[in-house]
Amino acid sequence: MSAPRDGESSREDAHATALNLTIGESPAWDELTFAEQEVAVPVAAGLTNTAIAVRRGTSSRTVDSQVASVLSKLMLASRRDIMPLLPVAERDRADREARRRSHPAH
After folding, report:
1. Cα dist. 62→9, 48, 54, 76 in Å?
2. Environment class of residue 65 by beta-carbon count within 10 Å: exposed (0-12), middle (13-18) or buried (19+)?
3. Alpha helices in the chain (DSSP H)
């Protein structure tokens, strides 16, 4: 086996980090405030900021700010990218919420 070329080790480290992030082991998750974590779950489930605000009893602007902070802290460009970074238990909550949204009670 040959010695790694310049930059190869850092690419491997980045790849390993990406693999961890895709299975819900984002170290950045713990950097989120409790409120940001609570907002991230329904965002991952596909709820709008307005719907999240109504459920949480806060303003839409507060949720807008929290979502922006979540995306920034997790270094994401899209709210669709949040789901893979949720810890397993939170991902289960988001999955349940998404199913509830797609099959509302009558």
Report:
1. 41, 13, 11, 19
2. middle
3. 8-22, 34-45, 49-56, 60-73, 88-102
Domain range annotation of the chain? 28-102
Torsion-angle region of 70 (φ positive above 0: left; ψ -120 to 50: alpha; else: beta): alpha
Cα 36 to Cα 16: distance, rounded to the nearest angstrom:
26
Q: Is 9 exposed, middle or buried (0-12, 13-18, 19+ CB in 10 A)?
A: exposed
CATH 2.50.20.20 fits 28-102, yes or no: no
pLDDT digit string, tens, across residues 47-95: 999 999 999 999 999 999 999 999 999 999 999 999 999 999 899 999 9
pTM of the model: 0.72
24: left (phi over 0), alpha (psi -120 to 50) or beta: left
* Residues 6 or more apart whose Cβ sits within 8 Å of residue 25: 87
